Amino acid sequence: MGFKGSTGETTRNSKEGTLSTYLLKLYVTGSSARAETAIGNLRRICEQELGGLYQLEIIDVLQHPQLAENDKVLATPTLIKQLPPPLRRVIGDLSDKDKVLLGLEVRWSHGAHHAITGQLRFAVATLAHPRERAQHPNHTATHSS
User: Fold this and answer.
1) Which domains does the chain have, with CATH numbers?
2) pTM for this structure?
3) What digits encode the pLDDT tens for the residues 40-75?
4) Antiparallel, parallel or unpaired: β 22-28 and 12-13
5) Which of 77, 96, 113, 136 is most buried by a 10 A CB count?
6) Helix, coil or strand: residue 97
7) CA angle 120-126-127, nearest 5°?
8) Which residues pair with 117 in a beta bridge?
9) pLDDT tens digit sequence for 69-104
């Protein structure tokens, strides 16, 4: 998979066979300043937040209008996350990193993050201190003879 656009470049930064690989499509219009800004912002976000776990396809709607029509792209730049599900879209120059990550469900909301973090802290604490596990109300003790 590569870029379908004016640059002719190919970027494949995925670890083959990894289930958490992000499949991303960025629809742009030509090589306008807005398109170049969105491409630069997305590349930076992907490298910083996704490491090598993504495949990125940049599609110029002027050169490939049928692909844009198939994906129901009405405005550019439009970023589509196809994998992992659910399919998500972000429209604009992708300059707000937090909104892009939240829109693509790469970063959880603040409340969800704290709930998961609290659960992880408890799990780590109970592994380190088994007595606390037995005192936790949701713990069911099992004994073998």
Assistant:
1) 12-103 (3.40.30.10), 109-145 (no CATH)
2) 0.64
3) 999 999 999 988 899 999 999 999 999 999 999 999
4) unpaired
5) 77
6) helix
7) 90
8) none
9) 999 999 999 999 999 999 999 999 999 999 999 988
Cross-strand bridge partners of residue 54? 13, 22
Residue with tokens 């300059």: 95
Question: Cβ(50)–Cβ(106) under 8 Å?
Answer: yes
Query: Using CA atoms in the order 39, 96, 89, 2, what is the torsion angle rounded to 10 degrees?
Result: 20
CA geometry: angle at 97 spanning 93 and 102, to 5°? 105
CA 122 to CA 118: how far, in whole Å? 6
- In angstroms, how far apart are the furthest CA atoms of the chain? 73
Burial grade of 128 (CB within 10 A; 0-12, 13-18, 19 or more): exposed
